[in-house]
Specification:
This protein has 3 helices and 31 strands. By secondary structure, the chain is mostly beta strands. The chain has a domain of 197 residues. The strands form 4 sheets. It has a 24-stranded antiparallel β-barrel. The radius of gyration is 29 Å and the shape is globular.
Length: 561
């Protein structure tokens, strides 16, 4: 009886629904889906197990296993975004500043980076942590370089405003990150940029493109020095321009810093300034780049008493080629922010296919030259003002810090076989660059690299890397061999050996052998390796950190979502 009643009721309902005149049917559109926003992020974990190895100088690690981990989470909805980064150093990997692990409050775990940002009309407001750069960074560069253990993020407020087309303004204030705390100084800054072709309507279609900009940054730190009268507000200001027409681009930047006695400059009262000039020309198959840089007394930190890298406000870009091959980067150049004069030139040429030199597949040629010298200074006997020297502005002392002349040729020999070949002549003032005392002899080295790849099948490839460094100084000559086998798009296996066969002490002619197995799927990468790492200097963009010798396993996991 119940089933009969239910059937009659359903039949009646469907009869009413489908008896309507189809020509007069009015369908209500579905309600729009509510925008709940979007969450994205990424995770990176690096862990290493350490074995003590007295033969290579690898120290014992009490914890045996050390780990660095980072997780970013970002929420966006319309013009609003918010994010945070969780960091864990349990404890920090060897070569990273131990203050990441032993902070008095966080004990190596915390959320040092978090922010909220909203854009309304032409104004964007960010509160909390943020990164920022004015121009090339001579005045301000707030950034993260995880491989170097650098994170000088500002915590405060930043405004970006475009009052009308072609004008871009930025203003900021905050304190710099100091591991899991903050530095004592306050950083304030303003940057304005004018795109003349956007600003002036008549210039919109002109072939010449012009951008002009100016910046000002000031730091405040109370004077607590009992023996010196130190400026509490230190300003750093300058301007930049970029002009391009057709294949040519010319850019220049100048920065001037008032007297800023600090640990880095041994508390002198000289002003600081920097000039960066660059020119490039490019067209199909050819490119030329030229650069010149002069830096004098430009260390700029929110804590004048802080040594090394923490709490640095500005950046000294390195006009040198950033090598990725191990022995080419064996003696890396670290920018001398206290004073240097440098040049760089690079020429790139693509040899045409089916030409006598290029052959069937063509060939790429890259020639690079860079050098850096000390400034031409004259000592002054002025104990009252503590200004110990003056400079011949564009003169150099004749004391070469660094020189690199290299030639790179990349050629495809067949559909399956290609190679890259590099020869380099390098000069390295180890005493100046690594602040060695007592002084050490300069290093002159010749480095050769051959990087060969053979595609066995469409899914499998074999890469062989051979490198050699010849020098009569330091630990003398080295050789490096690497073999990498790629299996499809997901797996790879690598084995390498770096051998100091020329060491004058036969007991120190070590083999630094490494094995790595890796797996890649979409945004996820997992690798496991075992081997020995020599001690040395690791650099990125002219900024360096010391990496101690190690022996053990290392695992890396990274993913994004």
């Amino acid at each position: 009886m119940k089933r009969t009643t239910l059937l009659i009721t359903l039949t009646s309902v469907f009869s009413i629904l489908f008896s309507q005149d189809s020509t007069k049917t009015s369908v209500t559109p579905p309600a729009p889906k509510e925008d709940h926003g979007q969450i994205s992020g990424n995770l990176e974990v690096i862990g290493q197990y350490y074995n003590p190895d007295t033969s290579i100088g690898a120290p014992p690690v009490p914890e045996k296993f050390l780990l660095n981990a980072y997780c970013n989470l970002t929420y966006t909805r319309g013009h609003f975004s918010a994010g945070m980064r969780y960091e864990s150093y349990l404890n920090a990997l060897q070569g990273y500043d131990p203050r990441y692990s032993y902070d008095s409050r966080n004990k190596g775990i915390g959320i040092p980076f978090r922010y909220a940002s909203y854009k309304v009309d032409d104004l964007e407001v960010t509160v909390g942590s943020y990164y920022e750069q004015f121009g090339s960074g001579l005045i301000l560069r707030i950034y993260e370089e995880r491989g170097l253990g650098i994170d000088n993020a500002l915590d405060g407020i930043r405004l970006k405003y475009t009052p009308f087309r072609g004008i871009y303004l930025k203003a900021l204030i905050g304190r710099q990150r100091f591991f899991f705390n903050y530095g004592p100084g306050i950083v304030r800054g303003f940057d304005g940029e004018m795109n003349m072709n956007e600003l002036i309507k008549k210039w919109e279609e002109k072939k010449t493109r012009i951008i002009l900009a100016g910046s000002f940054v000031s730091k405040f730190q109370a004077d607590a020095n009992p023996s010196l009268i130190l400026p509490e507000n230190v300003g750093n200001y300058g301007g930049r321009m970029k002009i391009s027409r057709g294949n040519f681009t010319v850019s220049g930047e100048y920065a001037y810093k008032i007297n800023d006695p600090s640990y880095d400059n041994t508390y002198i009262y000289n002003h600081g300034d920097a000039v960066l000039l660059q020119m490039s020309y490019s067209k199909k198959g050819i490119a030329l780049l030229l650069g010149m840089k002069r830096v004098d007394n430009m260390s700029y930190k929110s804590d004048r008493d802080m040594p090394l890298l923490p709490l640095t406000i500005n950046f000294n870009p390195a006009l040198v080629r950033q090598h990725t091959y191990g022995l080419l980067a064996f003696y890396p150049y670290a920018s001398q922010i206290i004073g240097e004069l440098g040049w760089q030139g690079e020429f790139l040429y693509k040899v045409k296919k089916d030409s006598r030199l290029g052959g069937k597949y063509g060939m790429d040629i890259n020639i690079n030259y860079s050098s850096n010298y000390g400034l031409d200074t004259t000592g002054l006997e002025d104990s009252i003002t503590q200004i110990p020297y003056s400079t011949n502005y564009f003169g150099h002392s004749g004391n070469m810090y660094w020189q690199d002349i290299n030639l790179e040729i990349t050629k495809k020999f067949s559909k399956k076989f290609k190679g890259t070949f590099i020869i380099a002549d390098q000069f390295y003032d180890i005493t100046q660059i690594q602040a060695k005392f007592p002084a050490k002899p300069d290093v002159h080295s010749i480095i050769a690299v051959a990087d060969l790849t053979y595609r066995v099948t469409d899914d499998h490839a074999l890469r062989v890397e051979l490198q050699h460094l010849y020098t009569e100084k330091e630990t003398k000559s080295w050789a490096l061999a690497l073999v990498e086998f790629t299996i499809g798009e997901r797996f790879y296996l690598t084995a390498s050996d770096q051998y100091n066969y020329g060491n004058p002490d036969e007991k120190k002619r070590f083999n630094f052998v490494n094995f790595v197995a890796g797996y890649v799927k979409n945004a996820t990468r997992i690798s496991l390796g075992y081997g020995k790492q020599r001690s040395g200097i690791f650099c990125a963009g002219g900024v360096c950190r010391f990496v101690p010798a190690s022996n053990g396993f290392i695992i890396q996991v990274s993913t994004g979502f």
